[in-house]
């Protein structure tokens, strides 16, 4: 209650500009402003564009410069001027007249349309003379006072910030906007085209296009590596069948995303990369089992049908457990949750589609392909026996030609025909050459291999399972212990190479705009020629581009900012790096006299301001200021914190006008009259607004004193009308300087101050926060009644850590229910979930090997994702063991399981790891233009998540292949009483105690 206006601000990533259009040139300000507004209107008319924000321009106004002496001479007050303008600037609908001739509306148009309407306003009648506003004032069409200046690469500029509608394609929108601007420029007069320079900057489509292109390359690389692994293990026919699952699953997932209104983004693309290795798991299991049946003499149709039937529940349960890991992530709260939400959605869609492909489409296609292969092999054998070498070569060439034709059709976008031709050509090539026959028969011969012999050794001795379990536990303890002592710390999000930054220019004191502009221009001149900087926007005073700063706000003593954009990474091939460019900027501006300079890297993810943000709050203002000072002093006394600031009010002077109400009452004067007179020496007293031909919007009509009279001393000479005539307002007002009052911030109804700082290079923010927290808790360092809490990244980090922990436990609970329903055994269900612990150890090893910090967002997501991935191997092993144990002794069933399932387990593991290995190493392959890149900025986003999955899955698989048979054998030996003596010994020792 009592608030004139309030706003609720939402953090919406789609509300940041996708393109900035800068206009500069030696033109009158009015011309430049009109051209910019026309450009704004034309671009805003596009359906893809939500709005276009202007920066660097001033609004027009009708300025009425009054002469105080004339006002006194004609006995006119400011209030009378307001009444005159207000009462005559109206459009009155006076009603309607209805008679036999019809109904007619009557209007009294009296609104102002041009400046001369204001000139001729009658203010007072003096005898026979009518005194108009023009007699009392100099009236002119001008611009509002500047509150800021804007320059682009050193030239005064007006900028247009393009904001797209939510859900529309960013890349195509930028292209359409650029085309629209070029079209508008072509319509200008030649003189205007020559006078105005148009520049495009902050082009988000370039960054998004680069990221999508890099991720597309990563998807293709992952597919290629997965196919190479499958081809080497299963042969060309089976590899093609498994490969069929990849595009089919993607197409089904894209259809589901299209129905859901989901557009392609970087997070969706990474979800596809992560899914490539997992979505073939079900297909590998089905194809591998079908090949085994075919090798035993079963027909292709029957073999694939029985494979789908036999592997139905293992595939369903393994896919369901994987989905269980991602389902809780849909409820991730806050900005990180909004940032990451498309990853679990993409994986849920793709893996659900892969389930349908593996169990429905693949058996049908596999049966048909098997029949086709047999027919082609028969024809080939017949021709081979009855034809010459030249005919066989022609057949091979014809098969290759069919493959080539299929590729051409796929490139031209004819997917169905292209896929059929490509698939048929591959089958024909396999049949005619006979050198690429499936090797599945030899692979599926159940001859004991090295792994099977190892498992047989373990299960055949009663003590070996206990030894292997003990060694695994020792290994886990060692890994967790080593990581605890030698880790690289914790970070909220990944650290990536900066591409854009803001240079804040800070200074204190009551500086004029001209003084601020000179200081900002000095800094701008020092950095604009640094190698690697493509463009620089400089703003003095108020103003600036709306960039994603990750919740960080400008320091309170900021007088201007320079927003720099680096040359694209590909153009400079990473040299100099973004870090090197910012270091060069810091070196140039380190000792600029009269100002402090601070650099803020623009947020590349869900960042929330400076990492060391401590909030103190309380009811006593003086105690609150003291507490903020104590903490800031501590920041400055320790190593690590840099770029320190706080939100306490800045020292400065405001002028306060105190009205003696009693004296004013004697003159029948009031505060409103005083306020109106004071406005005459500031921004002006608004009399109303009007419409002019030069502007599409209403402009203000403001009355004020000439610039030479807009002084504090003038206030003492101004007069107001009273019962005693015109008297100076100095009779009942007092003008005095007071301490400048800053912004008042409240949290839970309590006033607060924030003390913020970055950390120096090589310093871990989490460790520094722990150190400061310990210092605060050691003793009562702050005044009584003062509360404190960490904000910014630390708050988001704590919230995300808590959520991921709950999501992890929730995923384990859901998986346990599914496993219990499948195996009907608490022991076997718990045994499956042991793989999750093993995978966590693998993640820690990966961070040590790759020298990475633990990222709460990315590494945490990787651990939760692994929980659903690594259990698949155990599901396959235990399901096969249960099947074999129905017909043979338990220990023999364990050995047989190891012998039979080693290949699908390794295949599913290696395909997942192969798909993510290039991303873990930071390798990006450009399939369109050729070549490769290492550690592109966009690739660094996913490095920690890929590392977590690759190492976690790899280590867990190796340990699972030994530990799971050991645990199964342990239960068998326990049931046989092998450990009865050991149990009795423990019981006797317990009794003796």
Short summary:
This protein is an alpha+beta fold and 993 residues long. 55% of the residues lie in helices and 18% in strands. The protein has 34 helices and 30 strands.
Q: Shape, please?
A: elongated
The average pLDDT value, as a whole number, equals: 82
* SS elements, strand count: 30
**CATH topology title of the largest domain:** Multidrug efflux transporter AcrB transmembrane fold
What's the SSE blueprint?
Layout: E1 19-24, H1 29-44, E2 49-55, E3 60-66, H2 68-74, H3 78-88, E4 91-99, E5 102-109, H4 115-119, E6 122-126, E7 129-132, H5 133-136, E8 137-143, E9 148-152, E10 155-164, H6 170-187, H7 190-195, E11 197-201, H8 204-234, H9 236-259, H10 266-295, H11 300-310, H12 312-326, H13 334-340, H14 342-386, H15 389-411, H16 415-433, H17 440-444, H18 450-460, H19 464-486, E12 490-491, E13 500-506, H20 513-527, E14 533-541, E15 558-566, H21 569-572, H22 578-588, E16 596-601, E17 612-618, H23 621-637, E18 641-646, E19 653-659, H24 661-666, H25 671-679, E20 685-690, E21 699-704, E22 719-722, E23 725-728, E24 733-739, E25 746-747, E26 750-759, H26 765-778, E27 787-791, H27 793-823, H28 826-849, E28 854-855, H29 858-869, H30 871-884, H31 890-920, E29 923-925, E30 932-934, H32 937-940, H33 943-975, H34 980-992
Helix pairs in contact: 6-8, 8-9, 8-10, 8-31, 9-10, 9-14, 10-11, 10-14, 10-31, 11-14, 12-14, 12-27, 12-29, 12-30, 14-16, 15-16, 18-31, 19-28, 19-33, 27-28, 27-29, 28-29, 28-30, 28-33, 29-33, 30-31, 30-33, 31-33
